[in-house]
Amino acid sequence: MTGIRWGGACLYMVGFSALTGWAIRASEQKTVGIADCAFVSDPDRFQRKEVKIRGEVFERAGKLNGRWSRSAVEATVPAAALPVRNFIDQEIFDSLTRAKVPAARVSSDEEFLRRISLDLTGRIPSADEVRAFLADKSGDRRDLLIERLLYSPEFTDRWTMWAGDWLQNTPTVSTAAIQRGINGRNAFFTWIQDAIYSEKSFKDIAYEAVTAAGNNFDPPAGASNFPMSASTTMGPAEDNYDMMLSRTASTFLGMSQYDCILCHNGRGHLDALSAWGVRATRTEAQRMAAFFSRMRFDPFRFQQMPGQPQPFYAGSFNVNDVTTGAYNLGSTFGNRPTRALVGTARTLTPEYRLGGSPSGNNWRGDFAENLVRDPMFARNLVNRLWKQMFTLGLVEPVEGLDAARLDPANRPTAINPNTGEAWTLQATHPALLDRLAREFVDMNYQLRPFLRLLAQSTAYQLSSRYDDAWNPSYVPLFARHYARRLEGEEIHDAIVKATEVLPSYTVGGWSDKVSWAMKLPDPLEPRGNEGNGNVFMNYFFRGNRDAQQRQYSGSIQQQLALMNDGFVNNRLLVGNSPRLRTIAQMTKNEDILNEVYLTFLSRYPTGYEKERGLAFLVRKNTTAALKNEAVEDLAWASINKVEYLFSY
Prior knowledge:
- With 648 residues, the chain is mainly alpha-helical.
- 43% of the residues lie in helices and 4% in strands.
- It folds into four domains: 26-37 and 158-373, no CATH class; 55-106 and 376-484, no CATH class; 486-569, no CATH class; 578-647, no CATH class.
- It has 26 helices and eleven strands.
- A hairpin with a 4-residue loop joins strand 8 and strand 9 (421-422).
- Residues 1-33 have low confidence and may be disordered.
């Protein structure tokens, strides 16, 4: 047996082979026991996931720290000496002070400008934007910059991409019985984009995604593509209901353990992983899934006339609800173990995990109302947004929240079999997570105000430079800003913006061409691979939002692509790049060097870089052809510096 990709510890694939996709006959099914649980068979895979994530953060921090040469200037300070701008700083700096760990200094203006531009918009600043920001000596220049970026068109593009990853918007899902298709993907994209642009509350986003009805190709009904991913191959209807709960709980509550508990009780499986999960039962999870037992997917039906093209809606589905229906027990085939009867009962009445049953016929609506009132809803979202801005979540992994270990006012008393002691609170800063969740609720679950709160904190604005002793135990303390490896779309757009050589991509189902990767509807585009754009971005592990999730790892292939790929090198020719052509026309070597660094690295060269760069230009700047070649070489060297790959 094998665990499904998006699940918790152990979704059994009883009636479905993840490798072949062929059904297993009921007569061939075996009795499922503890040994079949993915967690029991490989507990280290799950227990060490948090350690692995922290280790990757530590490794990236150490790698990037080499970009600075050590100097006599102190690069760390006592946390208590840093300015406190909001409650985030109070919590982070108090923790550092108690631990006697110094903090990084506040980032330089150059460092902050590049970081906040990438984190909020997915694009680097232009040379003119860098100069203007550095020339502004007003005390509130950082706040004004944050505000401008929050309401820029590029912000909508960047956070539409983020939300598309979060909601897994892709035309095909490997385990789905029915597919969204390109038109469904586009309708879902339009709905997500409109939600980000119009500042729709995340409470409304979640409610609409869970309850959406209508044709999945219709942009106004674009949210109906979220429940469509719950359709499951080769099983009874209850497999769909289980999958809808699993996806919904993981996405909106951060509780992927339901994928495990929908196969068996938590005890004996999640004992060492989740204080909440060990008490949860399969029947409780099935009662949660029962809220979706009246949801249906009906194919769009039409009569093909000879010689007539297929209508736009061919291949689409209508998502709707019927007035009767129940979660039936007793099924002996499909993707999960036999659903045993509960006593003599053959059906289950819906019941939310915190209490609450349907009050009428709108069962999905009743579930959604309970969902957005669940304390885990706000905790999950603020943890995901914190991770996006700070690189490391307050809880890791973000889909592994333990509902019994997050409330600082109610510390767990159950025993963790790993330690033989009572469970500890799960968040690195439990009171901070709790306060952030309450603030998010008070902000009406809106994205821009919450990101403003994070970005304005001194904790976010700390430098990633840390010249003091640094060890892995410091990672959960946020003593410095953790560098984030750029996504494939960000690398693409940084090169495009710096060189001013815009591509023209064809996107499935769209009539308009696209020049910026952050505007693409999913990581599989552009499928035509014009200019090798798709292949180049895929070197940076964009994933496909299905079997392969986005990753932030490095690789030799990435380095080779930055050195040799045609997507890069064709843009680094003075004859092709308007920006490099402008730089090559400058008469002073110092101006040329400064402009290359401002354009590609969003900063002026250091003293060492200036000395070496000017000496290089003096040797090369003897003819127009050699001067052009020197500008191209400097641009190539800038793109291949380690820092170019990071938001630091």
